[in-house]
Every structure is written in structure tokens, then in C-alpha cells.
Amino acid sequence: MNIQDIKNRFGIIGNSSLLERAIDIATQVAPTDLSVLITGESGTGKEVFPKIIHQLSARKHGPYIAVNCGAIPEGTIDSELFGHEKGSFTGANEARKGYFEVADGGTIFMDEVAEMPLATQARLLRVLETGEFIKVGSSKTLKTNVRVVAATNVNLQDAISKGKFREDLYYRLNTVPIIVPSLRERKDDIPLLFRKFAADFASKYRMPSVKLDTEAENLLVNYYWQGNVRQLKNTTEQISIIEKTRDISGDVLQKYLPENASSKLPMLFKGENTGELSERDLLYKVLFDMRKDVGDLKRIVFGLLQGTAEGTNPLTATMGRSKGEFAHDKQDTSEMEKRENSNLPLVIRPSTDLPSEHIHAHEEVQEPLSIEDKEIEMIKRALEKYKGRRNRAAKELGISERTLYRKITRYGLEE
Ligand SMILES: Nc1ncnc2c1ncn2[C@@H]1O[C@H](COP(=O)(O)OP(=O)(O)O)[C@@H](O)[C@H]1O
Ligand SMILES: [Mg+2]
Q1: CA pair distance 410, 66, nearest whole angstrom
Q2: Ligand 1 atom with the shortest distance to the CA of 13
Q3: Burial, 16: exposed, middle or buried (Cβ in 10 Å; 0-12, 13-18, 19+)?
Q4: Which residue's alpha carbon is at the smallest distance from atom 26 of ligand 1?
Q5: Structural contact between residues 172 and 128, judged by C-beta atoms closer than 8 angstroms
Q6: Gap between the Cα atoms of 329 and 392, Å rounded
Q7: Counting CB atoms within 10 angstroms of each CB, which of 3, 137, 203, 372 has the fewest?
Q8: What is the pLDDT along the chain (415 residues), one digit of tens a residue?
Q9: Distance of CA 11 from the midpoint of ligand 1 (Å)
Q10: Angle at the Cα of 156 from the Cα atoms of 155 and 158, rounded to 5 degrees
Q11: Rounded to 5 degrees, what angle do the CA atoms 98, 32, 127 make?
């Protein structure tokens, strides 16, 4: 069977050499009885590999059991995997066979193997080395013939150094490593995957396929895709369902690509680049966001305190006082509601998690000059980049259009 046949048979999309190498190793190792460890970020498509290995092995008519080690509570995992004797613990009214007994002659896929408790790791090592195991509450050694394929998105070397994963088990499992590449390492596959998913959802929901224009496709290809293929698939589904138009522009797509901190703020670097922002600029930007939020919070708290002192309803007092200041926040709130109602991904900015002890109600909001200069410079640059289009510039800066407007007036940046 060549690689293309395997891709067709298992529904794998993509032509990247890293992906093909992973498939190739899986086919080579399948007929042996060696343990295989599959590593790769979450959502890269690890789960198809143990299936390939099982199907192309002499065990293909034997059982195939997939176990998610992260989903089984620590208290029951030994009994799930190795079985237990009647009366071995409270509630063990019947003896039970474990997966290693049931899968005799077949393959067990141990997903999220890094989540396995250390005591269970010891049992697993034993069964891998000798084929022997003991049921919980028993003293009799049993034998089984199971091939183990394990997967993880955790760096096991790290887990070993933290004492969470046994080194000997790591070497035993890692006889043959398969590394599934992230989407960032196979950008050429992104449009292919999008078209495939768009076509799938189109037939599922009986509507024409969504299509991307050139700008949108660039955006898609250069996005960070922290959740890899899973995230791309979900995003494609959201767009297919929510958007009325089938021709998707960059602006529309952008709404579905969260720019949260953990996604490494990709759009700052990978948009339609004219003047690229440096890492330092990025830090400044995060600082601005935080400073703005602290300022807003201070004003709210200050308003609340004053309102209480004056014996008025603190909430209306605050709202009254800061009407001008906070008009944009109202806008943001309705935007949030809109997004929530429409199931759009909510853009989480790194600035929202401020510890409350940093708020002193009576402190003045001071603007250190150098930061102010930097802010002016960034606003100018964003305006230049988007040729004066304030909505785009505000988006890039992570502030509302209204706030940008205020800053432009304050710093005298009108053209
Ligand atoms: N190369 C691919 N072609 C088509 N679908 C894929 C591909 N890789 C992943 N998928 C899909 O992406 C989703 C996540 O894959 P999965 O194997 O569950 O990821 P994980 O690596 O987190 O176990 C699944 O719906 C899977 O079908
Ligand atoms: Mg998985």
C-alpha cells in the first residue's frame, strides 16, 4: 500500500513531507510488534496513527481498544486497565476484566499517556516488558499479548525531569517515535484542509461551500493555529454556519481568529505587512492595554467610592460620571453579546486579568513620557499602515475606534 492509498483509506488530507514521513513510519512499523509513541501538539491528528498501525498489522482481526488516560479518574484507572477481583474495593461487586485482558491478541491505544499516574506507569512497564499483569485485589499473575501505541501532546522529557513520568517507561514506549507536525509546519496543507472541511460541512448542512478570497486565504495560512487541524475544522464549521455570504473576505475571516495571548498575537506579525512591529512594540502594546484597563478600573472604583460617599446609587453615579469615557465600553459589551449569541469566538486580550490589589482608587493616572511617546509612535504607524483607516488601525492597536479618536485628538495627530 502506498502513502496515497493510506491517506485515502484513513481520510488524511495533506501532502507535506513531514506528514508523509509520519505516515511512512507508521506503515513500516505496523507489521512488527514494537511499541510506538506518537507525539504532536493537540489537534494535529494523532488519533489516526494507532488505527493505521493496527489495521496494517497481523493483529487487525484482533481487538482494538482506545483508552484516554487523561479521562479516567486516578482511583479507577488500574482497575480499568488491568481489571479487579470481586470485593477488592468498595463497590467491586463483580470481578471485572481490564482492557489488557480484553485486548489480548490486539492493540491498545493509550492516548494522553502523560496523564497516567506513576503507580499505573509501573504496571504498564511490567506488562510491556513481560506481558504480565495482576488484577487489582488479586495475587495471581496473568499473561496477555497486547501491542501498545501511546500518544501525548506533552513533552515527556520535561515530565520526566519533573518526576511525573518514568524514564524507563519512556524508553520502552518510545522504541519507534512518530512525530505529527503542527499546522504551522505544513502551511501548504491549510488551504487543502479548509476546502475539504468546507465541502464536508456544505454537504452536511445542504448549502454551497464557503470560499476564501486571496486576502482571507493569506490570513488563514499565516495564522498561528494553536489548536491545529481541530481548530481549523471548528473554525470552518462556524463560518459555514454563521456567514450568510459564501465568499469570505479577510475582514470576515478575521472575526473567527482569536488573537489571545496564547495564540502569540499572530496578526500583529502576519497580517498584510508593511511596517512590521517588533517584539518590543508588542510588549509596549500589551503594556498599553493593561495600563488602559487599570485606568478604566481606577475610574470605576473611584466613581463607586464617591457615589457611595454622596449617598447616591453607586452604579448610576459611576455611569453618569463616566458616560463620555465609557461609551466605547458599552459598544464593546454589545459586541461581546453579539459574539456570544452568534457563537463567534470571543477575543480574549491579555489585559483582562489584572489582580485587584493593584488598584488604588485615589491614585492619579500618570503617563510616563517615554511610554506616551511610544504610544504616539505606534498610533502613527498603525494609521500609516492602514492609510488613515481608523477602524483597522484601532483593531490592530487593540483599542476601540472611539478611544483611538480620543487619542488622536489628544496628541494632535489629525492629518
Ligand atoms: N490530516 C488530516 N486530514 C483530515 N482531518 C484531520 C487531519 N488531521 C486531523 N484531522 C481531524 O482533526 C481533528 C483532530 O484530530 P485528532 O486526531 O483528534 O487530534 P489529536 O492530535 O489532538 O489527537 C479530528 O476531527 C481529525 O479527523
Ligand atoms: Mg487526541
Answers
A1: 61
A2: 3
A3: middle
A4: 45
A5: yes
A6: 18
A7: 203
A8: 799 999 999 999 999 999 999 999 999 999 999 999 999 999 999 999 999 999 999 999 999 999 999 999 999 999 999 999 998 888 888 999 999 999 999 999 999 999 999 999 999 999 999 999 999 999 999 999 999 999 999 999 999 999 999 999 999 999 999 999 999 999 999 999 999 999 999 999 999 999 999 999 999 999 999 999 999 999 999 999 999 999 999 999 999 998 753 444 444 433 333 344 455 556 666 666 676 677 777 777 777 776 655 444 434 333 333 333 333 333 443 443 343 333 333 333 333 333 333 333 333 344 455 677 888 888 888 888 888 888 888 888 888 888 888 888 888 888 6
A9: 10
A10: 70
A11: 30
Q: pTM for the whole thing? A: 0.66
Q: Which atom of ligand 1 is nearest to the CA of 189?
A: 1
Which cell numbers hold the place of 83? 481489571
Pocket of ligand 1 (CB under 6 A): 11-14, 40, 42-48, 229-230, 233
Residue nearest to atom 27 of ligand 1 (CA): 45
Grid coordinates given for 27: 506503515
Distance CA 355, CA 352 (A): 9
**Cα–Cα distance for residue pair 218/210, rounded to 1 Å:** 16
Beta bridge partners of 212: 248
Contacts of 365 (CB under 8 A, 6+ apart): 294, 295, 298, 299
* Antiparallel, parallel or unpaired: β 36-39 and 132-134: unpaired
Q: 43 C-alpha vs ligand 2 centroid, how far in Å?
A: 7
* Cα–ligand 2 centroid distance for 119 (angstroms): 23
CA distance 172 to 124: 10
- Dihedral sign for Cα atoms in the order 126, 130, 135, 139: negative
The four Cα atoms 387, 389, 395, 400 give a dihedral, to 10 degrees, of: 140
User: Considering only CA atoms, which of 291, 305, 306 is closest in space to residue 358?
Assistant: 291
Tell me the β-bridge partners of 150: 37, 110
